[in-house]
């Protein structure tokens, strides 16, 4: 019996064609700006931290559009991944009309420019459609729009227990698994799981952490236990589906960097004393999520409001600019972007 098991193990359980298909399916991919600096693989968990109204949800929407769009459609290159997006709305403020608006704009830009890589062009070219009448001359494909929206699966949760129920019993692990299997049967695979925002129930859970359940044979309802269970259920989901997790998180306290964000100055004394390495390991905000969530995260991004940006198109409108910095892995470059009707535009 032992010899048979050894021979079976040596023979393997997949062909070279099956192995290549599996490896190529899970290869690294790049999302569009501002999440384009680091290639992401299945199993990566990206935490996007920033204060309220710092365009975190806008980043999720733009990444979702990049995921649900196909690579090509009827000879037009859109540059998408053609995969499903699972969106868990914990803030309960998601605007589906904003998603629809940005998706239609992306389709219009792809048809108008003749390719889908509109974000790689200069800002003056991206905004070359000056008037609304000129934009409406290009008609996007309604069938493509409908198929993209079908790839966006939305779930709203009002508290941590409902999130746990969705993950463990109803929506994700059963209902969404069934919906995912139906979509995968049609050629679509799940690509990104989005959580907006992971710390939405922190204060209510913290307030109730001192309350114990009536039955003593169960765990007490504490913040740590709830987050640990959420992380466990997310890990189970990652085992079933090859996807990337994007989670936003608000800040309680955030340190301010100097105005010159692209060239932060460090004194020579810090280099000799080793303070640079120690400061790099400390996040520029007060961490409030339990250690189980911190250990689960593989990539970290922080977003800050920056100086107002003078619009190049009108010369009059001031658009609020934001800076995006990668903390893990730590990158030296800091991107600045604005948010307008079309979505996120990198300005420097």
Automatic annotation (TrEMBL):
<dbReference type="GO" id="GO:0000724">
    <property type="term" value="P:double-strand break repair via homologous recombination"/>
</dbReference>
<dbReference type="InterPro" id="IPR027417">
    <property type="entry name" value="P-loop_NTPase"/>
</dbReference>
<dbReference type="GO" id="GO:0005657">
    <property type="term" value="C:replication fork"/>
</dbReference>
<dbReference type="GO" id="GO:0005524">
    <property type="term" value="F:ATP binding"/>
</dbReference>
<protein>
    <submittedName>
        <fullName>DNA recombination and repair protein RecA-like ATP-binding domain</fullName>
    </submittedName>
</protein>
<dbReference type="GO" id="GO:0003677">
    <property type="term" value="F:DNA binding"/>
</dbReference>
<keyword id="KW-0547">Nucleotide-binding</keyword>
<dbReference type="InterPro" id="IPR020588">
    <property type="entry name" value="RecA_ATP-bd"/>
</dbReference>
<keyword id="KW-0067">ATP-binding</keyword>
<dbReference type="GO" id="GO:0140664">
    <property type="term" value="F:ATP-dependent DNA damage sensor activity"/>
</dbReference>
<feature type="domain" description="RecA family profile 1">
    <location>
        <begin position="20"/>
        <end position="252"/>
    </location>
</feature>
<dbReference type="InterPro" id="IPR030547">
    <property type="entry name" value="XRCC2"/>
</dbReference>
<dbReference type="GO" id="GO:0033063">
    <property type="term" value="C:Rad51B-Rad51C-Rad51D-XRCC2 complex"/>
</dbReference>
């Amino acid at each position: 019996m032992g010899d048979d098991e050894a021979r079976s193990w040596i023979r393997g359980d997949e062909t070279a064609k099956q192995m290549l298909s599996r490896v190529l399916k899970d290869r690294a991919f790049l999302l569009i700006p501002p999440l384009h600096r680091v290639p992401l693989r299945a199993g990566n968990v990206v935490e996007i931290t920033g204060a309220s109204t710092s365009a975190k949800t806008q980043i999720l929407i733009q990444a979702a559009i990049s995921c649900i769009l196909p690579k090509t459609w009827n000879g037009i290159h859109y540059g998408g991944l053609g995969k499903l997006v699972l969106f868990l709305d914990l803030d309960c403020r998601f605007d589906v009309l904003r998603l629809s608006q940005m998706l239609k704009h992306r389709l219009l830009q792809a048809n108008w420019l003749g390719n889908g890589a509109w974000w790689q062009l200069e800002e003056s070219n991206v905004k070359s459609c000056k008037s609304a009448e000129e934009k409406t001359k290009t008609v996007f494909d309604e069938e493509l729009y409908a198929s993209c929206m079908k790839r966006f699966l939305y779930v709203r949760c009002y508290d941590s227990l409902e999130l746990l129920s969705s993950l463990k019993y109803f929506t994700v692990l059963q209902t969404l698994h069934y919906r995912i299997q139906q979509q995968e049967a049609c050629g679509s695979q799940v690509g990104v799981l989005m959580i907006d925002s992971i710390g939405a129930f922190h204060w209510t859970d913290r307030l109730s952490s001192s309350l114990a359940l009536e039955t003593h044979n169960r765990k007490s309802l504490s913040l740590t236990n709830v987050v640990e269970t959420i992380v466990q259920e997310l890990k189970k989901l990652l085992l079933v589906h090859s996807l990337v997790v994007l989670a936003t998180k608000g800040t309680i306290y955030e340190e301010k960097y100097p105005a010159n964000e692209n060239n932060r100055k460090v004194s020579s004394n810090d280099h000799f004393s080793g303070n640079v390495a120690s400061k790099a390991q400390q996040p520029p905000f007060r961490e409030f999520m339990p250690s189980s969530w911190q250990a689960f995260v593989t990539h970290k991004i922080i977003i800050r409001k920056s100086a107002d940006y003078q619009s190049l198109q009108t010369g009059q409108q001031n658009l609020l600019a934001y800076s995006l910095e990668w903390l893990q892995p730590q990158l030296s470059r800091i991107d600045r972007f604005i948010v307008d009707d079309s979505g996120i535009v990198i300005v420097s």
